[in-house]
Amino acid sequence: MINLIEKLYHTGDLTNAELKALIEDDSAEVSAHLAKRADEVRQKYYGKKVFLRGLIEISSYCKNDCLYCGIRRSNKSAERYRLDLSQIMECAENGYKLGFRTFVMQGGEDAFFTDEYICGIISELRKKFPDCAITLSLGERSAVGYRKMKAAGADRYLLRHETANEKLYQKLHPAEMSLDNRKNCLYNLIETGFQTGSGFMVGAPFQTTDDLISDIRFLQELQPHMIGIGPFIPHKDTPFKNEKGGTAELTLRLLGILRLMFPRVLLPATTALGTIAENGRTLGLKTGCNVIMPNLSPKEVRKKYNLYDNKLITGGEAAEGLALLKAEIEKAGYEVADERGDFVD
Ligand code: SAH
After folding, report:
1. Positive/negative CA dihedral, 200, 201, 204, 208
2. Is residue 215 within 6 Å of ligand 1 at its C-beta?
3. CA-CA distance, 224 to 185, in Å (whole number)?
4. Which domain holds residue 171?
5. pLDDT value of residue 344
6. What is the pTM of this model?
7. How many domains does the chain have?
8. Which atom, in ligand 1's list, is nearest to the CA of 309?
9. Which CATH number do you get for residue 316?
10. Is there a domain that residue 321 lies in?
11. Tell me, what's the pLDDT at 315?
């Protein structure tokens, strides 16, 4: 197994059979070696820098019905809210003072947020924070809409493909959603000039190792600038409430592999990883991750933006706990970078 890691480190790729063996192996020694190599590669391109992205969760309304997600439209117990322009600006102002230079506006697919409305928010942020990157994570929208948002001043867009296996995609999503459409959106985003992020859930119901290999192959084809992966975590008010969640071990194994395959990619240690394992995000940083996305949303809405159970909300996760988070990052041997943290070509 160590020789597979060496091959991946030196050549940036493995065959499907090799990938399968490496993904399915679960020895701690292999994990440690993978982390060491992944860290070497991240340090080669990004040094010890960790980029912070301030997450502003702008709406919990969603017209979609993804079976895994706590804010799916069929979840009648979900509390719905949407932030208005002044609330969003206030989140960003607080974040700016704390040192954030990237704001990520994420939300459900809320029909209230028309292209024009979103562009209005982007223009305001652009005017007020010319030195910051504006990232959107608002789901599937038209190519025209993406172009308008780019023109209004947005820089980046996050849209996970979720799974690259059509059959699995169908099992995780309602009939009206399709993998083809999701992929089209991703290609449109790249073509529009967004720094684009994609990714998938680890340990989603029915997911096999072959599915994970398809995810990796799709990412190799797409060549995104950012890759977001995190464990699937069941939500109590969804059809998947009794399914098993993904593990931190498998998530870390994939993070290490991704760093070796995509040396320059921006790779977050996600909140979901931090939620299922005590020091999940620190382990992520030590396995090639170089981004953390603390929450800048108003405190009273954080519980309502509930994609999965027990979301990490206090301490180092929340933006106010930034000192704690910085200490955690420094203890792990890295340093917080006070810059936009763009993809380096
Ligand atoms: N509406 C936007 C934002 C989705 S939320 C969009 O469609 O892109 C961001 C990510 O959270 C999703 O892409 C999904 O991968 C993840 N997510 C949703 N439910 C989850 C769950 N139960 N466990 C883990 N991750 C989940």
Report:
1. positive
2. no
3. 13
4. 43-337
5. 85
6. 0.96
7. 1
8. 22
9. 3.20.20.70
10. yes
11. 55
